[in-house]
């Protein structure tokens, strides 16, 4: 089974979105360089960010998100982002009316069941859990192996927290990686068990 990674771009003060669920400049680093990160030609990063991000993206088999992210992105029009094979949506509601049942999206109730489904689909590839409330639930349940964050030089002051509403202390090991790119600091920590 592949490892479970909690991930997002995050403001210096720990937010993944502002109070209106908008990411603001959190993804500006994805267009701040001259090295294409994917085939779209839209995402261009520094060579340092490419060397860190591309190999990670290539390992991801499944992404787990909450229903809020799914709704905000309109389900990415039924196509998982960044070439990922499947998306597991943690939700208490059914899939949207008219949703294409052939789209590689799976609607699952509860974070434990969602991560289990994601691991089944991912095999030995990485299961990425979106930071925020779903990521916090997975961390609190002891399901997260690694925390990755792309720290962007902006202060939001308030909004949606990277660690959601975590109510207990969780220890991480010293940074496994700390890499500076253009307009971003890439951090990776193992979760201490």
Automatic annotation (TrEMBL):
Determine the domain of life of the protein's source. Bacteria
Q: Where in this chain does the record put each Bacterial bifunctional deaminase-reductase C-terminal domain?
A: 111-169
Q: Name one GO biological process term.
A: riboflavin biosynthetic process
Kindly list the GO molecular function terms attached to this UniProt entry: 5-amino-6-(5-phosphoribosylamino)uracil reductase activity
One Pfam entry name:
RibD_C
Name under which the protein is recorded: Dihydrofolate reductase
